[in-house]
Amino acid sequence: MSPSAAGALAVLRERDFRRFFIGQSASLLGDGMVGVALAFAVLDLTGSPADLGYVLAARSIPMVAGLLIGGVVADRLPRRRIMVTADLARFLGQGTMAALLIGGHATIWELVVLQAVHGTASALFIPASTGLVPAIVTGGRLQQANALRGLVLSVGKIAGPVLAGLLVAVAGPGWAIVADAATFGLSAITLILLRPPTHRPPPAQSFVRDLREGWTEFSSRTWLLTLVTAASLTNLLFAAFYVLGPATAAHSLGGPAAWATIQAVLGAGSLIGGITALHIHPRRPLRTGVLALPLSALPVIGLAAHLPVIPVAGLALLCGIGMTVFNTLMETALQHHVPEKALSRVSAYDWFGSFVCQPIGQATAGPLAAGLGTHPALWLAGVLQFLVALGALAVPAIRRLPAGIPDAPVPAHHES
Fold first, then answer.
1. How far out from the chain centre does Cα 109 lie?
2. How many Å apart are CA 117 and CA 58, to the nearest integer?
3. Which residue from 54, 206, 248, 265 lies 20 to 30 Å from 406 (Cα-Cα)?
């Protein structure tokens, strides 16, 4: 291993992060299988892209709605304990869904309910996870840790769809979801083994005051407010890729194998993006991240343009690179520039804002395609997504934010 590669992986020498990394690696591999499995489970049941949108929205809505609560809880209680509880809930929910699908008794409303369980648990897990990582990683290795998490997500996106495509073709989608349930169980075990520093909760105060303090820390940073707005609109528009993409693949690109290929290549792009984020150290990280973000619109435009599988997969590769570089640099900036005592709450506002519009995109993509036609709907989503991503560069605070230098304390008069 070269010295540069060894340095990039030095964070894995830290015992607690290594354990956390193993559990997350397994969990994200399982999640990579579910995108393909769930899409074709719903299409097998009803054949309706709109129903797929409703099932996806059923996970997103409670996740988004619960994030702010999750942020407050994670700043008050031990974050590891919250994450273990969330993993066990997802283990049970995904296991139940797998049993229903394998037994041939699943209905759309049952999938909706079980995905709502998944989303609620994720709302608790996500802010706690963002707050836990800086506690188990040396500060100078935060970008490495976030880049490695992005790499694991990428590997899951590559291997997960391939495994899911094979399982869907050979045994049915339920077996891919069995694997996902098992990985949440493994993640819970690795989290139980962690020994993070003792959590020191803030002084007792009202839930509303905790939310207000988190909002003050969040809204006082122009760069963060702008990027979350851009991410929210991007996720609203990119939902068309996941709702209309499987139906497009089924009708004109070759079916589940084609969609699994596109998803796997998207994961390969994320892998390349993660490797890139491990090694780059830009002086202005958000400027670099936002320059990469417009690449995420390319596969939507490719589907809109009736391109064959291979060109769409190539555009998905670029999409994966851009998304992972952006996400890694943004999360690292958040962890460097926000005080630890408010990190989970600010992270919750970040996740809430970024995903609040996604369920709208998931629920409306099918009806929009029914009204305009699938390809015009994809054109509209892709072009708008590209323009939104570029627009964030107009904000000076994004172009100028330095790497790893904390913001000045938030003035007291910012509180309302």
1. 24
2. 9
3. 206
Tell me, yes or no, whether 6 lies in a domain.
Answer: no
Spatial contact of 362 and 243, defined as CB atoms under 8 Å apart:
yes
pLDDT at res. 338: 79
Residue 357 lies in a domain: yes
Q: How far apart are CA 296 and CA 292, in angstroms?
A: 8
Angle formed at CA 32 by CA 28 and CA 35, multiple of 5 degrees? 135
Concatenating the DSSP letter of every residue in 254-305 gives -SHHHHHHHHHHHHHHHHHHHHHHHH---SSHHHHHHHHGGGGGHHHHHHHT
Identify which of 322, 320, 295 has the alpha carbon closest to the alpha carbon of residue 161. Answer: 320
Query: Using one digit for the tens of pLDDT, what is the confidence trace for 193-240?
Result: 988 766 665 666 677 888 888 888 888 888 888 889 888 999 889 888
> Residue 244 falls within a domain, yes or no?
yes
Q: What is the pTM of this model?
A: 0.67
Q: How far is the C-alpha of 352 from the C-alpha of 189, rounded, in Å?
A: 28
Q: What is the pLDDT of residue 406?
A: 44
C-alpha 133 chain-centroid distance: 16
| Residue 74 within a domain | yes
Structure tokens at 47: 């054949």
